[in-house]
Amino acid sequence: QVRENFPPLGNERAVQVLQGRMKGIQGHCNSCYMDAALFSLFSCTSVLDSMLFKPFPLCDRNVQNILRDEIVNPLRKTGFVMARSVMHLREQLTEKGQYSSFATAEKDPEEFLNLIMHQILGIEPLLKLQSGGQEEQECYCYQIFMDKQEDLVIPDVQQLVEHSFLSSNLKLVEIPSCFIIQMPRFGKEYKMFSKIIPSLELDITDLLLDSPRECCVCGDVATLECS
């Protein structure tokens, strides 16, 4: 346990701490989905640090302490987290959740995020989505679903998000405080893309509902949108 709190890693410090052998979160017993999610959420950003410190009304303090002292703080201090620390968290989630296999089986990352954010820590949903004028939907992350695009060989995240929103007729109701995106799922036998280039910034202008935008023809405020 590391009880001293550390800020997220950035720039040269991130390279020094996270690069090399025995770095990151050690995998064990189908933990890859959780390891990747935790690393993405906490190693180099503080956007969700409220999960570690905020006294939520429904918050489970034991899970919060494990997440902060056994996973996030060691990751930011030394760049390495032992598998048994993640297993400790998985065992607690198995006790709190409706599923008995969190400590052994591979789960969908969205299932993990919904459990720890909603049921365990009581965080409000991060995203509000609307599809084709229907009622708003609230969620904690967005999983990219899309058909194979022949013109996308090595896409970046910006392209994937835009294609996915367009194909599903989705819009963001408001600018999210945190936009967690799950890349297209890969199986052992099939991969839609061999590589995905990270977009260091994400432009969500065209993804926002009722957002004033510039007409690509005349430059005035647009009144119509063509998919």
TrEMBL record:
Gene Ontology cellular-component terms listed: microtubule; spindle
Record key words, sorted: Cytoplasm, Hydrolase, Microtubule
Top-rank lineage group of the source organism: Eukaryota
GO biological process, one term: protein deubiquitination
Localization per record: Cytoplasm, Cytoskeleton, Spindle
MF GO annotations: cysteine-type deubiquitinase activity
Occurrences of domain Peptidase C19 ubiquitin carboxyl-terminal hydrolase (ranges): 24-204
InterPro entries, alphabetized: Papain-like_cys_pep_sf, Peptidase_C19_UCH, USP_CS
Keyword Protein transport found: no
A Pfam family the protein falls into: UCH
Protein name: CYLD hydrolase
Biological source species: Nothoprocta pentlandii
Gene: Cyld_1
